[in-house]
Amino acid sequence: MDDSRIIELFFERSEQAIAELSKKYGMTALRVAGNILGSREDAEECVNDAYLAVWNTVPPQSPDPLRAYVLKVVRNLAIKKYEAKTALKRNSFYDVALDEIAECFPAPGAVEERLEAKEVAGMINSFLGTLNSRDRVIFVRRYWHSDSPRTIAEMLGKRENYISVRLSRIRRELRKYLAKEGVSL
Amino acid sequence: MKKEEISEILNNIDTEYIEEAEDYTKNREYGKEKISAGATHHPAAAKPRFRFRWAFAAAALVLFIAAGSVFFAVRAEAKEYNEAMDFFKSNGLSTEGLNRAEIKAIYRDITTKSFTYGKTAEVITNSIPGYAVDTDSLSPEDLALIWEKNSGHESSDIYGCSYKIDYRYQTPEIQADITESIVSCVKSGKVLWETVFPNLSIQQCITVENGTIAFGSTNYDYSADIFPTVYIAQLDNKGAVKWEYKADHGFRFEDGVGVFPKEDGTTAVFTSGFSRQENAKHLCFLKLDRDGKEYDFTDILHGEYGFNNAAQLGDDYLVQIGEWWNTDTDANARLLKIDSNGNLLGEYSYTADNCRYYITDMIEFGERLYISAYAVPLKDGASGETYLNFDDLHRYLEETYDLAPGSPATHEVEITEFIKKHSTAVLLLCDPGSASPQLFYSVKGAAVGNGSLSVNESNELEWSIKSIEYITHHPLLSTTLGIRSDNCKSVKYCFNDSGDLLRIIDTGESVHLYR
Q: How many CB atoms within 10 Å of residue B366?
């Protein structure tokens, strides 16, 4: 079903909207949540909560594109849930992805830490705009979706080593870019 | 920058890039190498912020910390005094003639077992009726012995006790970031001891000869690049730590899978270590001597899966190996048999009755190994898929009951029947020789969750199942693969150590079912 029709169903307050949303983006949403939470049961609960959040926010919102909106909600909820339970269970993909990219940002307590997240996010988006689409996809899949290099390699038909090398180069470029923008490490 | 902030930054990645990443991976043909597009984001937006505000904030922070220190010091003193008073009261010690500082000093002197403070001997001997000795002649060792013999603090038999583990959190409202674990040993409603583990997450305690083995993990601190690892401690009968062990095998982080104290005082441990280079988890087996020193280590195997449970089977062990993502294979019913030296002896999975099995828990009881699982029938044909998913539910309802497509919210009776028909809770029993699991008990129309096996205070095996009662399916509360229900009954099946079913207890509790 077309996204616009799904949105219409939400506006009509038809519960079929959830079913259609689930059918179309459910598996993707489950993977995003699962990469962060590492548990199918938790991931399913998180996706449930995300559907409820979408139901409660559409209308008045009319997200376009719908998929990114749903995935953002799922990711936010998954991270909240992950942080709440992180002391007892840890997940490889999310932790390691965050750990990897942390080297691009100022160390905790550094002067530059005063920069607000939105400011740095703006820089990251600008940086992404300078990349070619393949590198951008690799970066987003790794650090937003928390996909493992192996998974990304399979998706793109490349070798895992190729993805790891690309990620390393992209991080190096990001460090340079942020430094140029006044974020010294 | 803290990981939480980095996560927040990444959260703000542009929607168009998220869409692009989805499209690109869905269609490899996509994507001429376009130099895009993110031109709407101007780095100029990131201007340095006003420094004066930070200087002011720093000054305020210093004042706040100074005021806070005084506050905490006063509170800590009051807390210690109250603890000391409780201690005096519960041990029948008299506070007569003692000031506040002396009471605290005696309390510290006894609880730290130093017995060197001048007034301690007098207070202890006065508490013992008919005891008259020259307190000046008592050495700290003598005093310790008198205290042990007369205060009821001799080594007590803690067999049959249970453990209560509480946590304190840095962010209590969401129970995030454990700052300490508080373990209490309780027997017949009486707290035998309580031990605080700062910066540790204790997850389980096991009673052993003359004490307790506590295990869990160290805390993480992303900002300091500290990752968690396995923590094990042996406590004595009063809860004092005799030795501690922290795993250090060069992994990014390492989790405990199972801890097995042995009769000779050594401890066998299974851990799961994550290797960042390989993006894989390693199943490791190690042995600790009577002092908690590691003297044997085996890296058994590694791969992109998790190791969920471990249990003892005679002299060997069974470890469950799982791939959380892979529900449409037998990956979640795989068992590894490993000998007492860490050698992999074989691999098993349980398949029967044209069903797929999902193992959720394992336990050794009465010298037998029980495995709790639920079974879902496989579809006809060789697809290997099960009747788990949401689409099947619609199709089944429409075809079987000739229902019009649409919201299934009104078809509770049919949905309940469907789900009950396609889920069976099973208790498997492992053959001690071959390790091969065999069906021991099953309950149709039911499922099991994690931690469904335990031994109760009467030393009976308790198997907790979720008996499906009435499914109120609502698309708003379902997932792509799921049914959610508050209408499962929690029912416990109790078995003795010979495997005889003793009774079935309807707990009266409602529980959730996710499928």
A: 15
The DSSP string of B121-178 is HHHHHHTSTT----GGG--HHHHHHHHHHHTT-SPP--TT-EEEEEEEEEEGGGTEEE
What's the DSSP call for residue B499? -
The domains found in chain A, sorted by start residue, are 3-85 (1.10.1740.10), 92-180 (1.10.10)
Residue B335 belongs to some domain of the structure: no
Which residue among B304, B335, B369 closes a domain? B304
Query: Could you give the dihedral angle defined by the CA atoms of residues B202, B204, B208 and B210, in that order, rounded to the nearest 10 degrees?
Result: 30
Q: Is residue B116, in this structure, part of any structural domain at all? A: yes
Please give, rounded to a whole number of angstroms, the shortest distance from the CA of A37 to a CA of chain B.
Answer: 10
Nearest CB among B32, B253, B279 relative to A150 is that of: B279
Q: Count CB pairs under 8 A between chains A and B.
A: 255
Cβ–Cβ < 8 Å for B2, A108: yes
Question: Considering the domain boundaries, does residue B408 fall inside one?
Answer: yes
Cβ neighbour number for residue B94 with a 10 Å cutoff: 11
Residue B6 to residue A98, Cβ atoms within 8 A = yes
pLDDT of the residue at A52:
82
Tell me: do B375 and B249 sit in the same domain. no
B120 in contact with A at a CB cutoff of 8 Å? no
What would the pLDDT profile of B132-173 be if each residue is shown by its tens digit?
Answer: 555 566 677 777 777 665 554 433 445 567 788 888 877 665
Q: Are residues B130 and B253 in the same domain?
A: no
Spatial distance between the Cα atoms of B196 and B166, rounded to a whole number of angstroms: 9
DSSP SS3 for B505 = strand
| Contacts of A172-179 spanning 24+ positions with Cβ under 8 A | A173/A127, A173/A131, A174/A101, A174/A104, A174/A124, A174/A127, A175/A103, A175/A104, A177/A123, A177/A126, A177/A127, A177/A130, A178/A104, A178/A105, A178/A120, A178/A123, A178/A127
User: Is B54 part of the contact surface with chain A (CB cutoff 8 Å)?
Assistant: yes
Neighbour count for residue B178 (Cβ, 10 Å): 23
Residues from chain A that touch B5, judged by Cβ atoms under 8 A, are 105, 113, 117
Report yes or no: B180 and B153 within 8 Å, Cβ to Cβ. Answer: no
Q: Are B408 and B475 in contact (CB under 8 A)?
A: yes
Both B246 and B364 in one domain: the answer is no
For residue B37, the model assigns a pLDDT of 31
Q: How do residues B224-282 score in pLDDT, each as one tens digit?
A: 667 789 999 999 888 999 999 999 998 888 888 889 988 888 999 999 888 877 777 88
Q: Cβ B13–A121 below 8 Å, yes or no?
A: yes
B313 close to B432: Cβ distance less than 8 angstroms: yes
pLDDT at B358 over 70: yes
What is the DSSP pairing of strand B200-208 with strand B211-218? antiparallel
Question: What span, in angstroms and rounded, lies between the C-alpha atoms of B187 and B475?
Answer: 47
Number of domains in chain B: 3
CB contact under 8 A, B35 and A118: no
Amino acid identity of residue B34, one-letter, is K
Mean pLDDT of chain B, nearest integer: 75
Quick one: B286 and B169 in the same domain?
Answer: yes
- Whether the Cβ atoms of residue B187 and residue B158 lie closer than 8 Å to each other: yes
Residue B200 in domain = yes
Is the same domain home to B510 and B395?
Answer: yes
Specify the DSSP class assigned to residue B432.
T
**Count of residues making up chain B:** 515
Domain that holds residue B296: 157-304
Residues B286 and B165 placed together within one structural domain of the fold: yes
Does residue B203 share a domain with residue B128? no
HEC letters along B364-380: EECCEEEEEEEEEEECC
